[in-house]
Amino acid sequence: MSAVADARAPRLHPKARLSRDDVRGRDVLLYPEGLVTLNTTGVEILKLCDGTRSLADIVATLERRYATTGLAPDVGAFLEGLAAKGLVTYGP
Amino acid sequence: MDPKPLWLLAELTYKCPLQCPYCSNPLDFAGGRFKGELSTAEWCRVFREAKALGVLQLGLSGGEPTLRPDLEDLIRTAHDVGLYASLITSAYRLTKERLAALKAAGLDHVQISIQGADEELSDRVAGTASYRDKIAAYHYTRDLGFPLTVNVVLHRRNLHQVEALIRLAESLGAERIELANTQFYGWALHNRDALMPTKAQLDEAWQVVQRERARLGTRLEIVWVLPDYHEQYPKPCMGGWARAYMTVTPAGEVWPCHAAGRITTLKFENVRDRPLEWIWEHSEAFTRFRGDAWMPEPCRSCPRKAQDFGGCRCQAFLVTGDAAVTDPVCSLSPHRPLIDAVVAKGERDSAAGRTDGQWTYRAAPASRALAAKG
């Protein structure tokens, strides 16, 4: 992930909505005619994707929260996967 | 694990200003069985019960759902309980102000039908001048930031417009276009001969879809609902009977799909009498064909049974009179000749130039007349 890419600010596409699926004990991202199941980390990442925080900020926040380093590739890949489905966009 | 529903189709009313001859509503929608629409409070209770049961996706349909003056209240409740709400509308007389109010209430996604790629054909199929309202509403939808699905039902009179329909959806900035070949239930079954496409029409449209998918990539999702009479094997209808879907009709009957109410050999429960959970778990209508214990041959020993679940129970009933037999669309079904005969008639009509067969528009007087005939 280059420094330029890290400056991009991801956000949820307006068509996607986080919801809690209590019956199946999971968090989900809902969109027209479909859903993606999220793990706890996925939810935490998406909650930080507000369109103003940069990807670098999001990674740094998570690394502090979990007292770890080297999360950038995983976070980047997770968001790229959702972006490929049109569920995450990168805005200025 | 026992299946839990993911989807609820809420048919809020059977009133509709459009008169499409392939409408999936019951032929007798204007009859006594469907009198007495659920109140705002009753629908809100249904939405809460549905979410507690596992439902995540809500379709607000009809008839024409925007005819319900309390639609904003219903959407607010659906949103508050965590359902993803899609409005499935004709957009007739739908204003930007109303759409903005629905958005403010929490509506997530809008699906607007169109009956043809141009005004003349669209209005002729709809039986109501509605094309201009639809085009205006598509733009409002995008202006307001909704994800948009363009819904089209395909049949012999509009299959030649598939490319123009895809280009229209593209120009509107839609997320999705649903190209649903007519499935023969409700009014579509009644008008089957006038709607039946030819193999050549279907092949040509499918070529267009493949070409356009390659051109558009992820910019526009093109959903193609198979014309099952022309297939060799049945569709995995609803992902299996009572596994993921439920439909609640305007007056509160609960069906495993929006066509199931026509199966006269099943007893359907009503949300006015029973909790939704009980209906899902215990009612005859939901348990009768769940799983595969009900299956006769050729399904019982067929390796495809986990894939297509024996096809569609409604189609089995409507074509053979028995909901518990293999979907007659299946080439292994002893009833397949009934389907072949209808398809062959469509080919003969087309070859003879008889492509303008009359259909009955979906309207209350026709519905009452058909209900009286039984």
Account of the 3D structure:
The complex is a heterodimer of chains A (92) and B (374). Helices cover 40% and strands 26% of the residues of chain A. Chain A is an alpha+beta fold and 92 residues long. Chain A has a three-stranded antiparallel beta sheet with strand order 2-3-4. Chain A has a two-stranded antiparallel sheet with strand order 1-5. The model of chain A has no long low-confidence stretch (mean pLDDT 91). With 374 residues, chain B is α/β, with parallel strands linked by helices. Chain B contains 15 helices and nine strands. Chain B has helices at residues 40-53, 71-81, 96-105, 119-126, 131-143, 162-172, 186-190, 192-195, 199-216, 276-282, 284-287, 305-308, 313-320, 336-351, 364-373, and strands at residues 7-11, 57-61, 84-89, 109-113, 148-154, 176-181, 221-225, 245-248, 254-255. In chain B, helix 1 (40-53) packs parallel to helix 2 (71-81). The termini of chain B are far apart. The model of chain B has no long low-confidence stretch (mean pLDDT 96). The chains are: A alpha+beta (92), B alpha/beta (374). The interface between A and B is medium-sized, with 17 and 20 residues.
What are its keywords?
heterodimer, A: 92 residues, alpha+beta, Arc Repressor Mutant, subunit A, 3-stranded antiparallel β-sheet, two-stranded antiparallel sheet, 4 helices, 26% strand, B: 374 residues, alpha/beta, 9-stranded mixed β-sheet, 9 strands, 38% helix
Radius of gyration of chain A: 13 Å
Unreliable stretches covering 5 or more consecutive residues of chain A: none
Strand order of the largest sheet of chain B: 7-6-5-4-3-2-1-8-9
Which regions of chain B have little confidence, pLDDT < 50, spanning 5+ residues?
none
